[in-house]
Amino acid sequence: MKTLGRFQAQPPSRDVIDPIVRRALEEDHAFDDRSTLPLPGAGDSKSAHVLAREGGVLAGRDAFTRAFELLADDEAVEITGRKDGDSFAAGEVVLELRASARVLLGGERTGLNFLQRLSGVATVTRRCVDAAGGMIAICDTRKTTPGLRALEKWAVVAGGGTSHRWSLGDMVMLKENHLALAGGIAMALGAIYSDERSGSLPVTVEVRTFDEAIRAAEYGAHRLLLDNMSNDEMARIVARLAESGKRPELEASGNVTLARIPELARIGVDCVSLGALTHSVKAIDFSFLIEGA
To answer: Which end of the chain has fewer CB within 10 Å, C or N?
Structure first.
């Protein structure tokens, strides 16, 4: 059963984005901006732009846009510029806006928070994808910010990455604790394949040794997660499975760095999963400037 690409993220719809962005605006009291609303000219139409202080890949434009549109209600908001997945250099204007001053100032922080974080996800993903040279897929994980999974997984795709499973309900992944609970690989897979719902799903088994990998493949796992293995051990597994004719998808995970990705690609695994794409990403530095301010 092919699993790579099965769960690929799509651009989040407004039904997904709006509740997330509205909560962020309410958290910031953006609808009651006491610094802006009393000022003369708060209702005047103004132009603004987002300037990149460093290079990267854009993601989060829809969430950024909705921060201002939700705040504006019936007022006009115009936003033009780069799209998700577009590269930009330091010093470039990536987005231009026109709205009332109260909307621009009220939505600035919330909009930038989404744009900076999600562009950071897309940027680090693109670096990993480039390092892979098109030979293997770069996958995300479930190590996402609570409540932001749809946005962060889309940012990975915008950077050229591939979505791993979305949740505990759409793919079986038997890791160390599951295997210990069941009494080993054979018992765990037997229980999964005997269950009507779980048995119909793709099944990944985490393995830590050569013997575990061969055993899991023989028992019918669709994918093997090669956890914290050396390059030599992974290469040995790739070669043996190719000889046996039982070749599930192979995923390298654990202790994966940007510098190591090209070698993993040469070894012949199918994908690399990195929690670092989302759990510890560096936000991109953007400035928000109102013209004439």
So the answer is: C
